[in-house]
């Protein structure tokens, strides 16, 4: 009896608990299903006005920007399809939709890391972009300013895929304007004497009370002579249209200062006046750069300068090859090095000026096929300036020892010859 009573109680308990357990399990399943449905629903794509917020943080990777540009044409195709089906849209609405499309396309593409420009990720981006653009085309609630801001900020980041935007180096590269004619020539006229006055140790030496460096003294005298002749040609010929044109006041003053005796020590001192002459040339140079001075590259302006150089080289050549002075006395051993270094100073500074002639008078020279002659003259002067013996010897030409005057005379004779041929070529 006891066992029957226990079985009856157990049966009643099962009858009571079973429906409640089943109901609880069903409720739990329903609740879990509802939670899954709620949290697994797709997140709506952010409207274009969130683009302003998205620009507060930099793009994650460069590859995302590249993928955005690849996906943009697909978004454009979808947008074009939507625009075709929307027959009620006006042309103004179509333009607005295009701007929204570009902005939303960049925002959606940059939010997802790119994997492959032709893979599934790009397809998903294109779909998101299409959805966002369609929404913008229906509402048109986004201001145009946000679209322009998003587009400009996204375009500021260069992408190797884009072919329409110029690289930053091309946009920021400075524009180099060619120098006016005559600037190189005047700079070359200034340079040799400036080096002797300002950059040479002990400065200008021919007017020193105690002369212990006669080699440098004669070298500086040769530089001065070329500077004088260049300045005279510049003042009298190259800067004027003809004999009736007025002198440039700065060139005329510079020409006068360079004529001061090189050995003048005081009242006036040679170096002080030469510096003033260089300052006058600097003033003329500044006027050339501003277009307030004239410089003519005609052949009749250049020929007098070349003739003057030819005469100077002829004098140097004679001093290098002569064996006796005018009174019949043999050339002194102490005069040999004076002739040598004077000629070297002439050749060094003349090569600098002739290089500037090649630069500024190139059109004139090419019109007469004279550039090669000038080139040979420059090379000859450079060879003469490059001879640097430790001791100047003047031995017999057949001697085992050197004759440095004759060594210097060879390139000087070549330079004089080519200048003579150049003058004839320009004169015809």
From TrEMBL:
Transmembrane parts of this sequence: 21-40
Region listing for Disordered, in residue ranges: 46-162
UniProt keyword annotation of Transmembrane helix present: yes
Keyword Ribonucleoprotein appears in the UniProt entry: no
Comp. bias (Polar residues): 51-74, 111-124, 139-156
Low complexity: compositionally biased ranges: 81-97
Keywords: Membrane, Transmembrane, Transmembrane helix
Name of the protein in question: DUF2333 domain-containing protein
């Amino acid at each position: 009896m006891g066992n029957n009573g226990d079985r009856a109680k157990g049966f009643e308990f099962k009858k009571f608990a079973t429906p409640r357990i089943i109901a609880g399990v069903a409720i739990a399943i329903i609740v879990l299903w509802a939670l899954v449905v709620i949290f697994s629903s797709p997140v709506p794509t952010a409207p274009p006005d969130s683009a302003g917020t998205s620009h507060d943080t930099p793009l994650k990777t460069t590859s995302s920007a590249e993928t955005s540009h690849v996906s943009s044409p697909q978004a454009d195709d979808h947008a074009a399809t939507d625009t075709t089906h929307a027959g009620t849209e006006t042309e103004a609405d179509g333009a607005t939709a295009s701007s929204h499309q570009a902005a939303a396309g960049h925002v959606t593409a940059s939010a997802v890391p790119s994997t492959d420009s032709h893979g599934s990720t790009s397809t998903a981006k294109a779909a998101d972009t299409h959805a966002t653009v369609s929404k913008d085309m229906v509402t048109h609630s986004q201001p145009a300013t946000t679209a322009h801001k998003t587009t400009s900020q996204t375009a500021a980041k260069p992408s190797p895929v884009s072919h329409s935007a110029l690289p930053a180096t091309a946009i920021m590269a400075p524009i180099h304007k060619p120098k006016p004619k005559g600037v190189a020539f005047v700079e070359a006229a200034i340079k040799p004497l400036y080096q002797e006055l300002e950059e040479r140790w002990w400065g200008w030496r021919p007017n020193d009370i105690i002369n212990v460096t006669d080699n440098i003294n004669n070298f500086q005298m040769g530089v001065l002579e070329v500077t004088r002749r260049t300045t005279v040609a510049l003042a009298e010929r190259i800067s004027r249209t003809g004999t009736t044109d007025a002198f440039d006041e700065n060139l005329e003053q510079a020409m006068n200062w360079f004529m001061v005796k090189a050995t003048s020590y005081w009242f006036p001192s040679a170096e002080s006046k030469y510096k003033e002459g260089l300052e006058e040339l600097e003033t003329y140079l500044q006027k050339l750069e501003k277009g307030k001075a004239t410089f003519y590259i005609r052949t009749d302006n250049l020929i007098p300068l070349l003739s003057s150089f030819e005469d100077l080289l002829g004098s140097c050549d004679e001093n290098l090859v002569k064996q006796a002075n005018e009174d019949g006395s043999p050339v002194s051993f102490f005069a040999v090095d004076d002739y040598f270094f004077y000629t070297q100073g002439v050749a060094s500074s003349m090569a600098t000026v002739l290089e500037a002639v090649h630069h500024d008078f190139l059109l004139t020279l090419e019109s007469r096929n004279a550039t090669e002659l000038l080139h040979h003259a420059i090379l000859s002067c450079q060879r003469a300036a490059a001879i640097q013996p430790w001791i100047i010897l003047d031995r017999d030409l057949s001697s085992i020892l050197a004759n440095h005057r004759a060594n210097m005379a060879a390139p000087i004779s070549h330079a004089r010859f080519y200048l003579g041929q150049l003058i004839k070529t320009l004169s015809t």
